[in-house]
Amino acid sequence: MKSAVIVFPGSNCDRDLAVAIEAVTGRAPAMVWHRDTELPDGVGLIGIPGGFSYGDYLRSGAMAARSPVMQAVVEAAGRGVPVLGICNGFQVLTEAGLLPGALMRNAGLSFICRSVPLTVENSQSIFTSAYRSGEEIAFPVAHHDGNYQADSDTLDRLEGQGRIAFRYAESVNGSARQIAGIVNGAGNVLGLMPHPERAFEPAHGGTDGRRLFEGLLEAVA
Amino acid sequence: MKARVFVTLKPGVLDPQGKAIHHALEGLGFSGISDVRAGKLIELDLADGTSEADIEAMCRKLLANTVIENFRIEQVVA
Questions:
Q1: pLDDT band at B12 (very low <50, low <70, confident <90, very high)
Q2: Is A42 helix (H, G, I), strand (E, B) or coil?
Q3: Which residue of B has its CA nearest to A91?
Q4: So where are chain B's domains?
């Protein structure tokens, strides 16, 4: 499968994400610079990596969401191409309007960098098909702005439509309803703050994240 | 011409930064503060004749995230 990882100035998980994608697809993703206006033909997966795009200026993800390449990402998402946004990638997806809500400063104000327990809320999505609903897994988080907020109507809609993919199994950053990751209405865009690509090899201390990539490949292949 | 854009968190949106400032002020011995909210001031130096509608479009498209923030535009008379 052809894939692409978007690289912004300040991205710092782009290579980790590329390594994870290559490990499951057998093919290195195209690294697409933020000023590019096109994605590779026939791209079947787009990764938006973690990091601190544009130094988190204005708001986390705000500048990246308005960069030239995002027009192509929005179009591809509209065609149903799977888009996986991790950490800063989640922030970019909300700022670009591909996912509802916003990620605000952590409630405790601290940068949080540790492995956290997550509950898989819905294993029906293409991103979570390798997990069981209700299963507890662990991914690392590393963020300052991971406090997910949306109005209560939006939160009710996300719950009602089964669009909460992952929830924190303990209080982490003040996120509304402990939300750690959500999908869009069509189910082809996932944004999550925890890092599955950092729970990929036994040397990472856990491999729960590998199944997200494996399940995704199986679901879309 | 110049304009100032004030970006503030919507009422009801938790403001951890404002809370921290509040605590710090109390730590310095200031009392009688019931709440602190932190926002942003963005100053724009604009071509003469830039319309209010244009500035509002800038706010909606980039300067404010209207999911969580309000904005107010103040045109500065030279």
A1: confident
A2: coil
A3: B65
A4: 2-76
